[in-house]
Amino acid sequence: MSNHSDPKHSGSQDLLKVTAAAKREFPDPTEGNSQLPAGLLLVFAAIICFAGAYFGIYHGGFQGDVFNESDSTPALLSSKKAATSVVTQAPVELSLVEQGKAIYANCQPCHQASGLGIPGQFPPLVGADYVVGSEKRLIAILLKGIGGPIAVAGSTYNGAMPAWEKALSDRKIAAVASYVRATWGNAAPEISEAKVAALKKELAAKADPWTEAGLLAIPSDAKIEGVTEAAPTSGAAPAPMGGTPTSATTAATASAAPAVDLEAGKAQYLAICVACHQPTGMGLPPVFPPLVNSEYVKGNPERVVAIILNGVMGPITVDGKPYNNMMPPQGAVLTDTKISQVASFVRATFGGGAGPVTVEQVAAARQKYGSRPTGWSEAELKAFPENN
């Protein structure tokens, strides 16, 4: 027998030693479940209990208008109690013109915020016969769209206007039609939802957009058949742009009006004026003038009412800086009370604490200037006395 060790056997022993060491240092994983620490389980249980209690107290009856931690109380634990504790407020009904202002956002990319369109591409709406003329033509255009060349305000345009009858409801079409007819100096009456519905029914078989010849074939005084107008529920309807309210309406407005509400005026300002004049009243130089330090705001109250009623057109200097744009009239959009409120808010906030404007002053100004068809020029505004 040889005294020499077998090299193969020696190598196997070395490998076993290495493997044993590896197993000792890095043991194989074993099957089984390990329990979470008791402390961690207690933390999770506390979180779940707190979340359940918080949700139970502040669920607010699952109503969005009371789901507010600062307003809710443990009394709201009952859905029934929550429902009885919520004070509901009747929604404010906006006029068609006011509703149409928001819907006009669909039209603004082409016809622009000023209603002047883009020369050579999209026609203007300011003073256009298709806007302020026949109601039937305007509704027909909005319902079916236009294709091919068309002459507007002496210029020819050759584009395509999309049909809106499937995208907008009858009321929205009536609202945007009323808005464009009562803005930018346009002075046409509003168009009712009933007229839109009736003409949609009449034109139901028409599948293609209008051509200029087709629109001109509609008589300018054409009536819309099958219209049943809803009678006003109470009081008289607001006078259209350029119209004059009756003495009975003016008297009723004046007698029923409370003291000037600056908070209501602030709401009117934020809804109508803020886009141009900004929350600070500083405007957007050099496009829209400021109200701060404006002689037109803190001066004669009759003049600021006249501006709101009829708008402003052409170049004007405000606080030493020139501006050349157009302010749309709001006489058809705002009642005497609302004009009183917003004028008083603007004068008190941006006019150095100038005095309020009463409903009676607005009514008197509307009586004098309500039939005016155009906006004011700078020269005409300068002609107002500084104090009245």
Question: How would you characterize the overall build of this protein?
Answer:
The protein has helices spanning about 5-25, 40-55, 80-85, 95-105, 110, 130, 135-145, 170-180, 195-200, 210-215, 245-255, 260-275, 295-300, 300-310, 335-350, 360-370, 380, and strands at about 145-150, 155-160, 310-320, 320-325. With about 400 residues, it is mainly alpha-helical. Among the domains are: about 95-215, Cytochrome c-like domain (Cytochrome Bc1 Complex, Chain D, domain 2), CATH 1.10.760; about 245-380, Cytochrome Bc1 Complex, Chain D, domain 2. Helix 12 (about 260-275) packs across helix 15 (about 335-350). The radius of gyration is 35 Å and the shape is elongated.
The unreliable regions are 65-91, 231-258
Q: How would you describe the shape? A: elongated
Number of helical runs?
17
**Mean pLDDT over all positions:** 78
Radius of gyration: 35 Å
User: Per CATH, which architecture of the domain at 247-382?
Assistant: Orthogonal Bundle
Give, in order, the helices and strands. HHHHHHHEEHHHHHHHEEHHH
Through-space gap between termini: 137 Å
Approximately what portion of the residues adopt beta-strand conformation?
A: 5-15%
Q: Give the structural class.
A: mainly alpha
Describe the biggest sheet? 2 strands, antiparallel
Strand order of the largest sheet: 1-2
Number of strands: 4
Give the C-level CATH assignment of the domain at 247-382: Mainly Alpha
The third-level CATH topology of the domain at 247-382 is Cytochrome Bc1 Complex, Chain D, domain 2
* Helix proportion: 40-55%
The CATH H-level homologous superfamily of the domain at 247-382: Cytochrome c-like domain
